Amino acid sequence: MIVVDENFDRKTSNNLGEWLDLHGLSEPRCCALLRAVEDDAMDNLSFSPTANWPGPLDPNGAWQRALAAMLDYFPERADSISRAYTGTHKVRAAGDIRAPRAMTVADGGDGFPTVYFSFDGGAASQMAIAHEFAHALQFIASGGIFTPPVTREICAFVGEAALLQYLETFSHSEYTAAVLVWRRDEYVYCHHYAAALKLALHEPMAKYNYEWNYPIARLLAREAKKNLSPDEVWWLFEGKEDLDGLMTALGY
Ligand SMILES: [Zn+2]
Predict the structure, then answer these.
(1) Cis amide linkage into residue 100, ω under 30° from 0
(2) Nearest 5°: phi and psi at 91?
(3) In this predicted model, what pLDDT tens digit does every residue of 217-252 receive, in sequence order?
(4) How many separate domains does the chain show?
(5) Percent of the chain clearing pLDDT 70 (strictly above)
(6) How far is the CA of 156 from the centre of ligand 1 (A)?
């Protein structure tokens, strides 16, 4: 269910204090973000659709769908998106790896990232591919510069949100199934992972945990997509807007 891409980290934080510094986060600012995460999570629990996924049953179709969603959301960036799509190495993991585990490795040796993914033909696999393609796109758009993990995860969640928006327009039944996956993930990100971060905030020397990145990134991705133009969101992909600027723009 949850995408795993810790290996994308090239400059790790060792403890909570370093992680906060890396992201320009103070403890009060982080608490404010977590309160907003909790409020959103309460809102989301009220709706639980059930739906069958009639979407692409083969990985190529799912990748094409992720591409179409990004082109639809960022029509002005078609060149970068097409270049990232063509250059990204897409490696399907062996069948015994439980779908949709996936990860993106920043440079496959030729300047393009490699996405390792498993695929079971379901909506969660489709969401995982959209998530990882957005990671790959962010790497290409930024020229491979170091990007803090929360910002990388914001871009990946924008990829998932772009997929939802695309499906809402073009395929209602697929949209409903994908929303179900989004909401299941939301529970993990905004309850379990947010709780882990909340606990760690009382211990400045708490050992760094990649899961801390997800609840904040999830919140900021949703708010950025709702309140900012696609051009402004694209600056995050290019590394022209940092987390501090984004949080200020969104009122945190
Ligand atoms: Zn990710």
Answers:
(1) yes
(2) -115, 115
(3) 999 999 999 999 999 999 999 999 999 999 999 998
(4) 1
(5) 88
(6) 6
Place of tokens 């990004």: 70
Q: Ligand 1 center to residue 46 CA distance, Å?
A: 26
Residue 111 to residue 109: CA distance in whole angstroms: 6
Contacts of 109 (CB under 8 A, 6+ apart): none
φ/ψ (deg, to 5) at 201: -60, -20
How close is the Cα of 8 to the center of ligand 1, in Å?
8
Contact of 103 with 115, CB cutoff 8 Å: yes
The residue range of the domain holding 116 is: 6-249
- The band of 57, judged by pLDDT with boundaries at 50, 70 and 90, is confident
Spacing, Cα 160 to ligand 1 middle (Å): 10
How far, in Å, is the centroid of ligand 1 from the Cα of 97?
18
Residue 108 lies in a domain: yes
Distance 112 CA to ligand 1 centre (A): 17
In a domain, 1, yes or no: no
Instruction: Specify the pTM.
Output: 0.91
